[in-house]
Amino acid sequence: MLDQKQEKSTVSDLNRGGQVLMHFIRMLHQTLTRYFKIVLCVFVIATTAVTYQITDKTDWYMGLKYGYSYTLVELIGLKKGKTTLELPDGRKVMVRDAQIVSSPTMQNHADALISNLIISLVISSIVALIAAWYLFRFILNKGKQESKDEHRRGAELATVKELIEAANDRVKEDGRLSRISIANVPLVRYQENSGIALLGSPGVGKSTIIRELLRQLRAQQRKAVLYDISGEFVKRFYRPGKDVILNVFDTRSHSWDFWAEGKNPAMYDRMAKAAIPDNNGGGDPFWIEAPRLLFSALLEQLGKRYDVPSVEHLMNIILRMPNDKIANVVATTDARNVMNLDLDKLAGSVRAVITAYTRNFKHLALPTGPRFSFKNWAQDEDSDAWVFITVRDDMKDTLKPMITMMIESALSAILTLEPSQDRLIGTSIDEAGTLQEIPSLPDFMSTCRKFGGFPILGFQSNAQTDVVYGEKKSQILMDGIGAIAAFRINGSKGAAWLADQLGDQETEKSSENTSYGANDVRDATSINRQDKEGNLILRSQITALPDNTCYLKLGRGLPVAKIKFPYDYMKELHPGIIENEALNDTSFLSQLSKENEISPEHVVSIVNKENSREKREPQKFKQGSKPNPDAGKTQEQVLDEVIDNSAPPDGSKTTSNADVSNPVAQAMSSVKSKTQMNAVAQAMNAANKKQSDADDQDDEGDFSNLQFDTQVAHDFLAEYESSFSTEQSNTEKNSNNDVTNRNNEKSFDQHEYPGGM
């Protein structure tokens, strides 16, 4: 059965192929016949016209008469025939053909005509060849046009030359010189301030374009701040004594701390948001907002007490100071209710999150270079110093939070400048997905133009930005970018997304149909057209791009072009990173690796899991604590009561240092009070009423120097994780005896930790 189908298919294919081939040959024969007829006509007409133009009338007349007589006499044999001959003076005489053939004068006229005819043939041949070439090109282009898709509207694909010409025309229309170009394609002035996004997998050539942009900034003596992985830009652009390196593990690094950017509540809140990012994976936002509130309050309190606060002092407080002492430190701030010593595990959970995110800030004490301030750097209009924020791959987990805070400080510093149309400050953040969420980045992308910001962002794919910023924020970020260089993305989903970013188009698609039959008159070829919408570039074209090749989209009505650029081979002038003594200490490296075993995201996940169970159970209080009117209520009940009340709990005293974007604060916007309280403080104040005025005071003993121990953070988080695992196991085993479970649970604050916790 299968063999019969195969034989039938073979015969059908043979018949179909033969019919199509014969139809093709007939069509080709028709085309070539008509083609050569046209060329021949051109040749004959050209020969006649040229011969007539270059030949004298007498030579033309006498030469033709000689040819006529020569044919009769020599070829036909009519030697007695006569012909009428008109002489140059106008007389007409009857002369025998034999006399004309034998006349030297007539032979000279004939030779002149033949000579001119040969010249005409040469000229006509050239004319015919030229005509044949142009006719061939016309027919060929006509065939291509008939089979080519016609662009109706939407994005267009052009060659590099066409894009450069279109961009130059746009610059001329704008009337202002371009400051930045990409692969010799000029950008309309101020388009660079909208940002340039380099999208593609690692190793595809994004850094090559970044170096091209940086060379232009250096040539114009502009300042820049760069996130530099592995010190690739330091190797090629660093100028010792002028530029700044920020890396706590580099011997050349300047020192930097949180208070170098100023001492004000808004700055502290920005620092807290950069240090402790939103949990885009879900979960209760309270466990992000509360640690932020506490961290901001600690920065504020240290900033008030010391002219130049110590980062080491801050970390001692976070890692070593007992909870009751921390509660006293923040007693006059909105964070007083976050460090609630009566609510079981609240302080411990908050402290676990803030420790997980800030534990590596202690390394800010390592650099011994001059103190650096992004604010002062940005305000120095006469300086063209570059700031290199470097990191090595093995340092990313350790330095991620502090690098995010540094970049946040740099962006915020630029946004505080006076507006200027002449200023241009480069901000290069390659592989931005390796950092935490930079809170000011979306706002920077949309407003930096008037302050002279020039953002250069590098991402691997949309999935990377979605993880860091969340889907909505990621979309807002990409929508604000002015130019896109689309490199190869190896994944099909990422390539499909990138193809969408390059735009779509509406085209008139052409399709060719061939019909054939037993009679030749039935053979025909028809071309049909229909409108179709689709992506300008297919995702398969994205995944097939070679290295150092990208699709460049400038927007503003300009076409998209495929650009290939060579590797620049810039000379390396300096080491990327010069390790300090800390990285030569094996015990330090071992401890560093151990500390990063527990990620901040893991801690937040544990806290959310624990408290999703805890908030459905009555709150416990420590033995010896004063009775609380909200004892026995769940956290949800306490929060609901605060939201429902028209006035805040009695005895609440806070200072305004709240983040207006706090989701808890938005939920409680209906609460009317004379003193605007942070939502976290309001929610927890009901269960943490002030016992006396002394609660608002703290003494200098709270800020006593504590022994700094890098082991503390790891032990703290490990103990917290172990505690949660033990309690979860106990809960599962004893779920039928709630009373027994509650007695077996250990309060987090009752654990004993090194350093007096």
Short description:
This protein has 757 residues and is of the alpha/beta class.
Describe the 3D structure.
The protein is α/β, with parallel strands linked by helices and 757 residues long. The protein has three domains: 13-150, no CATH class; 163-255 and 370-488 and 548-564, Rossmann fold; 286-360 and 598-645 and 678-750, no CATH class. It is 48% helix and 12% strand. The strands form four sheets. It has a ten-stranded mixed β-sheet, sandwiched between helices. It has a three-stranded antiparallel β-sheet with strand order 3-14-15. Helix 2 (57-76) crosses helix 4 (104-147), helix 8 (265-275) crosses helix 9 (286-305) and helix 16 packs across helix 17 (471-479). The longest helix is centred in the N-terminal third of the chain and has 53 residues, at 2-54. The chain is elongated and about 145 Å long. Residues 600-757 are annotated as: Disordered.
Topology, pairings included?
Layout: H1 2-54, H2 57-76, E1 82-86, E2 92-96, H3 97-102, H4 104-147, E3 150-154, E4 157-158, H5 160-174, E5 181-182, E6 185-186, E7 196-199, H6 206-219, E8 224-229, H7 232-237, E9 244-246, H8 265-275, H9 286-305, H10 311-320, H11 323-329, H12 346-358, H13 374-379, E10 386-391, H14 396-415, E11 425-429, H15 441-447, E12 453-459, H16 462-469, H17 471-479, E13 483-486, H18 492-501, E14 504-515, E15 524-535, H19 539-543, E16 549-553, E17 560-564, H20 586-595, H21 600-614, H22 635-644, H23 663-667, H24 679-685, H25 711-733, H26 738-744
Parallel strand pairs: 4-17, 7-12, 7-13, 8-10, 8-11, 9-10, 11-12
Antiparallel strand pairs: 1-2, 3-14, 5-6, 13-16, 14-15, 16-17
Helix pairs in contact: 1-4, 2-4, 8-9, 8-14, 9-12, 12-21, 12-25, 16-17, 21-25
